[in-house]
Design goal:
Bound molecules: adenosine-5'-triphosphate, magnesium ion
Structural class: alpha+beta
Number of helices: 12
Catalytic activity: 5-amino-1-(5-phospho-beta-D-ribosyl)imidazole + hydrogencarbonate + ATP = 5-carboxyamino-1-(5-phospho-D-ribosyl)imidazole + ADP + phosphate + 2 H(+)
GO biological process, one term: 'de novo' IMP biosynthetic process
Protein name: N5-carboxyaminoimidazole ribonucleotide synthase
Subunit structure: Homodimer.
Pathway: Purine metabolism; IMP biosynthesis via de novo pathway; 5-amino-1-(5-phospho-D-ribosyl)imidazole-4-carboxylate from 5-amino-1-(5-phospho-D-ribosyl)imidazole (N5-CAIR route): step 1/2
Radius of gyration: 20 Å
Distance between the termini: 44 Å
Length: 362
């Protein structure tokens, strides 16, 4: 089959490799440069977007912030209905969809402008996170506010564009479920993954070490199934959750939904028989989804540093991925997967490696 991938960043590249591995062809569209490229190439192909779309049997994407114009130009080759896809792109409609499906999410209110945001904050008696409705990633486009903080300043800044005001959640952990749905409605999810963020950026993920209860795992998969079924979704979709409560009261609140492969699924490149990229390509090309076999794995993001230390390249248990991007503080430039034998070992390794692999501020 011929596959057009929208986006030419690291996720697009990793999707492209899975396309080739499975014997298909792909081209990647750089939405930043408005150019079509071959996998691994910096040189544009002679095709433009319209020709690439014509060429393709199926179009997929590395991120959901494509913009209405690009979606309109390419959606005839999407496997997900564009109206349904668009519901996930805007935090307001995404949260409303969770409410409609009774999938618990942090309490939220939408605002359109400075005046509406000021009014919400004036009436608010608890800490909140303010988020732009569209386009944010790695914690960009977010503001924290608590009673006593200045309202005018934050409203003037955040209220320039529509967004949501969300209750600040006192979570015990952040987790995600990454899973695929096929066109026949089959579902395969990787195990619940623990995600630790620093300054809004994913620092590391740990999975497969049976850290979470069976009930919590099952709940995450149930929410994933409900959401993907409701959207008649085909491909990999990730849900980020906050874990709240203790013991029998432990449950999940959706933080956000990403209709695509996800950073918290990168560990599957070393810790699963079929990684998230291959799972996605299998789903969108109509192959059956395999049962997933898992080995406990730690993924540490490489952020803002100029390279991965020699010691990691040389370590047998480490699988290093470098994205070929220029290093800037706070920018993800690679990741390292390390096989682990226990959750505790994973956490210890994570904190020691995160220090060496991550430069968040300049
Ligand atoms: P991503 O790169 O995952 O797409 P994003 O910019 O879309 O990130 P969120 O996932 O909404 O942003 O938030 C980033 C991080 O900020 C979360 O992983 C969490 O650590 C923290 N955070 C966000 N919302 C809340 C909340 N309501 N309560 C507490 N912490 C929050
Ligand atoms: Mg996000
Ligand atoms: Mg997030």
């Amino acid at each position: 089959m011929k596959i057009l991938i929208l986006g030419n960043g690291q996720l697009g590249q990793m999707l492209g490799k899975a396309v080739i591995q499975q014997g298909h062809e792909c081209v990647l569209y750089s939405d930043r440069l408005d150019l079509v490229m071959a996998l691994g190439s910096q040189q544009p192909l002679s095709m433009n977007l319209a020709e690439a779309n014509e060429w393709a049997d199926v179009t997929t994407w590395e991120h959901e912030h494509l913009g209405e114009e690009l979606v309109a130009k390419t959606a005839d080759k999407f496997l997900v209905q564009p109206e349904r896809f668009n519901r996930l792109v805007d935090r307001r409609t995404q949260k409303a969809l969770c409410d409609e499906l009774e999938i618990p999410t942090s309490a939220w209110k939408a605002y359109e402008n400075v005046a509406e945001l000021s009014a919400i904050l004036n009436a608010c008696d608890h800490a909140v996170v303010i988020k732009s409705a569209k386009g944010g990633y790695d914690g960009k486009g977010q503001w924290r506010w608590r009673p006593g903080d200045d309202i005018a300043a934050v409203a003037e800044d955040a209220g320039q564009r529509p967004g949501i005001v969300e209750d600040m959640i006192d979570f015990t952990d952040e987790v995600s479920v990454v899973g695929a749905r096929s066109h026949k409605g089959e579902q395969r999810c990787f195990p619940l993954t623990l995600n630790v963020h620093t300054q809004g950026i994913l620092s590391y993920s740990l999975a497969g070490a049976e850290h979470f209860s069976k009930e919590l795992e099952a709940l995450a998969k149930e929410h994933h199934k409900k959401l993907t079924n409701a959207l008649d979704y085909v491909g990999v979709l990730a849900i980020e959750f906050f874990v709240v409560g203790e013991g029998d009261n432990q449950h999940l609140l959706v933080n956000e939904v990403a209709p695509r492969v996800h950073n918290s699924g990168h560990w599957t490149m070393s810790g699963a028989n079929c990684d998230q990229f291959n799972l996605h390509i299998r789903a969108i090309t109509g192959l059956p989804l395999p049962d997933l076999l898992i080995a406990p794995t730690l993924m540490v993001n490489v952020i803002g540093v100029a390279g991965i230390p020699e010691a990691l390249w040389e370590a047998a248990a480490a699988d290093c991925h470098w994205y070929g991007k220029e290093a800037r503080p706070g920018r993800k430039v690679g990741h390292v997967n390390i096989m682990i034998d226990s959750f505790e070992r994973g956490e210890n390794l994570a904190s020691s490696w995160a220090e060496k692999l991550q430069l968040l501020v300049g």
